[in-house]
Amino acid sequence: MDFGYEGKVAVITGSSKGIGRKTAEQMAGLGAKVMLVARGEEDLVKAKEEISHHGEVDYVQADVTEEGAADKIIGRTADRFGRIDVLINNAGGSFAKAFDQLEISDWEQDIDLKLMAAVKMSKAAMPYLKENGGAILNMTAVLGKTPPASSLPTTVSRAAGMAMTKAMSKDLGQYDIRVNTVCIGLIKSDQIMQKWKNEEPGLSWEEYAGLDKHNIPLGRIGDTEEAANVITFLCSDLASYVNGVAVNVDGGSGHAL
């Protein structure tokens, strides 16, 4: 099965670990040239070394919230690989509190990271994506569709990301640029692994991942590869008529389609 990645170039933010890294590995293995982006250079060097066994990869160390970071990342990618076909806006986190526990600065930092960074990256990549068409994938979260208590500001940032995705898909379709979002639920990550060790150190990972308290119909926390599979498909030629969708990757835990 041909995913159409051969000769394509993908930029993935937040890709030194977790879902971003696994997606980079998959795309490189399918023939894409991949530019990794993250804040920590040590993790980037390690990721590049390991992913290089699957295909051509390089990295840019950058904080996507900083002024000029988007232009730096996109410029270096174009200089290194000569084109850009896929942009995955994956940088983010899961900071969440109740409304009355938040400072204005908390809102500003979260929106800068999860919404405005994606805006700036997409804007910087636009001249290159317009040349050959391509795909933008904005990572969001399933809780952005049905925010629970004490989930601010992250659910608001993620909901805004979904709305932006839909509007972008309608604006950019004329250039053969598809824009979609993956709404993540509980997926194995450094943060989840630390929570497991803090909460249930006596349990194996499989036992912890399957606890009823997670309220996941499929009965377990998802793996990074399972999320990467969906992202890799949505950005590929196999999904050439999929545009403006928000796909839940959450084991069925969300309360909205």
TrEMBL record:
Report the Pfam families cross-referenced here: adh_short_C2
The GO molecular function terms of this record are:
diacetyl reductase ((S)-acetoin forming) (NAD+) activity
Tell me the InterPro entries matching this sequence: NAD(P)-bd_dom_sf, SDR, SDR_fam
What does the UniProt keyword field contain? Oxidoreductase
Q: What is its EC number?
A: 1.1.1.304
Oxidoreductase is among the record's keywords: yes
List this protein's GO terms for biological process. bile acid metabolic process
Catalysed reactions, as listed in the record: (S)-acetoin + NAD(+) = diacetyl + NADH + H(+)
Family, per entry: Belongs to the short-chain dehydrogenases/reductases (SDR) family.
Provide the function of this protein. Catalyzes the irreversible reduction of 2,3-butanediol to (S)-acetoin in the presence of NADH.
Q: Per its record, how is this protein called by name?
A: Diacetyl reductase [(S)-acetoin forming]
Question: What is the source species?
Answer: Salinicoccus halodurans
